[in-house]
Amino acid sequence: MSDKHSQQPGSGGPRNFGDQEAWLNSLGPAGQALGRGIAAAQGRTGDEITRRRMWSGLGGRLRATSKARTAWRWPTVVGLAGLVLVVAVIGALQLGASTPANHMTEASAKEASDVAPERAEPFLQGPAEVNTGANETMRVRLRGGTRVALGTRTHLVLNDRLEPELKLGRVVLDVPKQAPGHTFAVKAGPYHVSVLGTRFSVDVDSDSVAVQVVEGVVEVTRHGRKLRLAAGQNWTGWLGAPPPGLAPDDGAPAAKPSHAASATRGVSARMPVALRRGAEASSQSQTTSLGAHPPPDVANQARQALAAGDPDKALALLAALSKQPGLAGENASYEMGRVWLQHKLQPRQALLVWQRYQRQHPQGVLRAEVDLSVVETLAKLGDVRRAVAEGQAFLRRHTRSERRGDVEALVSALQAKLNATTP
Amino acid sequence: MALVGMSQQSTRIPDPDLVAWCLTGDPQGWRALYNRHVGQVMRFVAALGVGANDREDAVQDVFVAVYKSLPSFRGEAQLSTWIYKIAARHVNRLSSRRRMRDLLSHLLWRELKHQPAMVESHDSVERAGDLELLDTLLQKLSSKKRTALVLFEIEGLPVEEVAQIVGCPINTVWSRLHHARAELGKLAAKIHARGHAPRREGQA
Question: With an 8 Å Cβ cutoff, are B156 and A54 in contact?
């Protein structure tokens, strides 16, 4: 039982106001139950999967909020925007000389200054290291015509073999078509992202690498295993151990490209680029080039439809969103099941939706959550045998899930019920 | 690869720097803020009585409100205090809306749709019972007493911070806590005397 106030000096109060432990002890056995309840409530902070799911949902809502805020504020910032643009252009032209961590050769600096202002991007000819700060973005050019746009707080290294390695942050790359037998590759952690002439982005943060392909084809390789991503597809790999609930080999690309939906598992749960002020045009066009898919605020519209008491509309919106690759699509699939269960009160339909998710995203980011929902729903329907079977499958599949305890308890209770009723 | 872990970064960053980072529009700043406070918000809205079905939406709503209001955060209080305030306000609004909806449904002679509760995350059936008991008892308190009690007993905040969040004098907070404890104790004793705790739906 956690009593934070007993450690607080002078938390003071009326003389007859004892600390939590004294209060609960004064209630006897009822106080003990209350105390256990308080301790349980203190631990109710949501598991990793729930947090990631909420984060992915939050991204779309904040994007919509940002657009709405920008729309009515633009008259007041247009003057500032002009000033910022001028400063950015001046800064970009002078960046090669002023950024302390940017080691450029004299030849590349000269070339940069000789080029017309609108094309004055630093040209990295030899080993180099580029860091952008919290408010900085930058473009550089590499040998062979590749152009790289660096996001904020990004650390890019050009090694002795002149191979780019992304240490942290985000880059968007424009790679011209490579000569036969040649490939361009960027290293990100243990992964090599090879391209054949395309446009794509790579994100590295503390625990994962994410690749999103705009045009062309990209291959992600690790320890000889390869995954090929086409335009519109994205993929996330783990730098260390995968989070609880995900299979240990989630980080390694499959040996052969599986179904398109599987190849797009796990969009990095990062804020959309559009939220960044001064976002590079290349980054924005990267998000809009996925325009064949529903607009990003569809999830918000679905939520509003539910709030307005129109679950059918929400289902239609989520169905369209579920066709999108990545976490947005997976989340929409999962949400459809919740709408069928909690708003339409049709648990069997919910089961069908979730079972479809299991087939389409065998190693999806939300697989553990879906599996758990299937177990719970079968139990509620009274289909004890199937609930036990699914529960045991959950325990085999998700060896490190934080929900194992819940499932173990549920399976035990159901098995006891099954044994009691079976002659 | 020598990377500074995101969680390590976010715990090293003082509140003013984290806020400034977010205000630059950097997504990583927002991620750090979310990671730092999502557990607190989740625990708080749950204790205030937001049902499991609505909890994730409520948490997202709070962070949207934080996103909208962060430019006006002046740093007079801790960031966590400010976020508690936003969350408490939002949950109160949700409760009012739910009461209005229930009242309208009742007036129009519609049956309230029964929504099956999501199974909570519990280590054991007993723990589920204790938590459900607490949730049930907390719902019997008035909104003001419940908020004060949750902030003090579950969130473990000092009474000065509770007063800042609920926007009333410290003595008023003590009074609410005193009455809340008394009521909770009586209710718990009554239930215990009856010999059972509320059962979870579908529980065998």
Answer: no
